[in-house]
Amino acid sequence: MSLLPVIPIDDYNYDLPESQIAQEAVNPRDASKLMVYQQGQVSVSVFRNLSDYVDEGTSLYFNNARVIPARLFLTNSNGAKIEVFLLQPFGQDHGSALNATATCSWECLVGNSKKWKSEEVLRFHLNGHDIELHRTDVQVVTFKWQSGQVFSDLLEEIGRIPLPPYIKHEANSEDALRYQTVYSKIAGSVAAPTAGLHFTDAVMETLKQKGVQINFVTLHVGAGTFMPVKVENAAEHPMHREFFEIDRSLTKQLRSGQKIIAVGTTSCRVLESLYYLAKQIQENHPQPLSLPQFPYLEESDVLSREQVADILDQYMEQQNVSVLKGDTSIMITPGYRFKFCEGIITNFHQPKSTLLLLISAFIGDNWRGVYDRALKENFRFLSYGDSSILLP
């Protein structure tokens, strides 16, 4: 295995005034500003004009993951407040856990953890029934209930939408609507794929009328997306694992040869992960659908998009599945060679973040000019902030 690259995280820092961290979503969604980076030139527009910058015949790839109300607030027998933040299912996939009707287990972050003794059972009382929370491990909580409801419906009643830590107000009914994309479908994320928050049905329709192909992938965004890089060499940062799925029909679209634009860094991660999953399948890797942090440090022969699509399609046929499910920890950093993405629609990201590293990998040092312009033009940053389309 090659040595890790050296990526000084201080090279990916900038001064972000707190006043430019968006605290509320723009209304309407498509009224947000749009920074356009095209072949080295930067201009400013409005998101509802997005179709002006997307060519006919382009394929857009959206992440249709839906945010679950993953924050739960309880009190123990002594009145101490306990927060349980669901991260990902334990021992089963998202669909199975969210559709469970009696019990399921989740990896969780537990706030005020010391006040919850391992033998104590916490409870919600809901519609005449109890929902029991058993702490089966330091980071695993098992839920048990007898109402027969599916777990996702229970969460809608007992949970709150998990807003990012830099949004200071408590999640309310408006956030429950606006911290979801209009096309969200597959529940399981604990953070929104925020590049999609600007899209409206009208914007989507305009793109379709222009001849833009609309495609969907699913990546369940994890809380690790907000984890700052705290080491001097960013390559030593432990990248979080996120679960994805794609429909087999997508392999046909990947063969089309159309220009590919990823809506968000999450869609980008899925698309780029598909390349290395195909490599692992081809090489009979023992865990072909689980991608490590740096699968690309020792690249030799290069697969074409058509070859990737063929390998994935044949694998799904052999496995007799119509949906490919896996997980990825890929960390895209400067020096990475993109295999699928030729454009990215994305918000403006935190200093010293893995998301900013991905943007730098995509447009090089030009990210500084884009971000400087956004700061000077008073763009709103982060999850509820304004957008950009990057077309190198």
What does this structure look like?
The structure is a single chain. β8 and β9 form a beta hairpin. With 392 residues, the chain is of the alpha/beta class. The chain has 2 domains: 274 residues, 3-Layer(aba) Sandwich (QueA-like); 89 residues, Thrombin, subunit H (Beta Barrel), CATH 2.40.10. The mean pLDDT is 96. The strands form 3 sheets. Strands 2-1-18-17-14-3-12-13-16-15 form a 10-stranded mixed beta sheet. Strands 5-6-7-10-9-8 form a 6-stranded antiparallel beta sheet. The longest helix is centred in the C-terminal third of the chain and has 18 residues. It starts with 32 loop residues before the first strand and ends with a strand.
Defining key terms:
six-stranded antiparallel beta sheet, Thrombin, subunit H, 9 helices, ten-stranded mixed beta sheet, 392 residues, 2 domains
Order of helices and strands: EEEEEEHEEEEHHEHEEHEHEHEEHHE
Q: Describe the strand arrangement of the main beta sheet, using strand numbers.
A: 2-1-18-17-14-3-12-13-16-15
The top-level CATH class of the largest domain is Alpha Beta
Classify the secondary structure makeup into a structural class.
alpha/beta
CATH architecture of the largest domain: 3-Layer(aba) Sandwich
- Which ranges are low-confidence, i.e. pLDDT below 50, for 5 or more consecutive residues? none
Radius of gyration: 21 Å
Share of helical residues: 10-25%
Gap between N and C termini: 31 Å
Strand content: 25-35%
How many helix segments? 9
Count of strand segments: 18
- CATH T-level topology of the largest domain: QueA-like
Total of domains: 2
So, the CATH homologous superfamily of the largest domain?
A: QueA-like
The average pLDDT is 96
Q: Largest sheet at a glance?
A: 10 strands, mixed
Choose one word for the global shape: globular
